Amino acid sequence: MADDLFQGLPPPSAVPPSPPPSEQLAASSADRDSPPPPAPAPILKSALKRDKHSESSHDEAPQKRLRFKTSVDATETQVIEAMKKIASHIKNPAKFSKASKLAVQLIQSGSVKSGTSNQFFNVLEAAMSSPSACNEPSLRNDYHALFSAVQDVAEIFEKQQRNQLATWTLKAVIANDLYTDDSFVYSKAAGKIKEAISNLPPATTEDDNEEAAALALAESKVVIKDTAEPGTTSATPTETKNNISDPFGLDALLPINSKKDEKPRVKDVTALNQKAEGEEFKRFIKAQREVLLLCLEIAARRYRVPWAQTVIDILVKHAFDNIDRFTARQRDAIEKLWASIKEQHIRRKQGKSVTGKLDMNAFEWLQEKYSREKISIRHAVGGSGERRAEQWLG
Length: 394
What we know:
By secondary structure, the protein is mostly helical. Helices cover 61% and strands 0% of the residues. Among the domains are: 76-177, Serine Threonine Protein Phosphatase 5, Tetratricopeptide repeat (Alpha Horseshoe), CATH 1.25.40; 182-226 and 265-357, no CATH class; 360-394, no CATH class.
């Protein structure tokens, strides 16, 4: 019966037997006489972290840190193939943004070296194949980023390539800086344009004649293209002369005395090299003049921006003072540009805006407005003397 009484209850827990009352009394008196135990020292959070880190470092293997690769593990052949693909796509304005970013990655990874400089120059040449694409609003930032990054590897190119790169940089970086809203960047770009103008040599009569001949040739090509019959070709004067002097082509079979012709050949090669250098310098100066004139025109278009007006005044005035460094057609353009800027500058001095209207503040505008209003002497306000405001005025 006693077993049925505790059926279904949990087993009893092991509770230590309590001491007799006399022992409890003695323990309580001892506790009152002894000093209280010291409080445990507070555990800092950093200490917990150090303990946990030290314990885990002994028990677990050290974790690997995430590292990014700063170089491309590719052979020179693979890099050249990549450059060829980029050059084929970077001509397309729709694909320029992505292709230019890939070109910048090649520069940053160190893949643009002396062995791949010609192939990468082909990429830049393809990017500048369109004469006006680098100044398009949707592509300015990408062109600016690409040719700014190229400055880090400019020394690997040949002299002729460096000259061409300097012209492209003026057009893709400096000219695009003239569209900025940052006054410091704008002033810095204007300073570089002034410096480039000062470095130009004075234009000669030969430069003016070559420019006129080039314009005449461009016009004549259009006429010749329209009048020429399809499928017909004309022989050059050199070919005609060779056919008359050597109709059977026997001169190529005659032996050449190399000893006698050795010194004249060296002189000819030297003369040809000097001529080539002179022609290259002319091409470089011609391209510089054209790009600098473009920069002046871009800067003048922003004359409506108040903080840019003084910078534009100084820049165009500097170009006008150095007008002899440009060709005849360019001199005419700079004169017209300076006349326009000078007129707007005079208007600003007279208190007028660039649109010709007087600049006035809010008070002056209200003063001019109400000077034409009619105010009735019968305590009414209105243009025609109506009495709608009489009660409000009292």
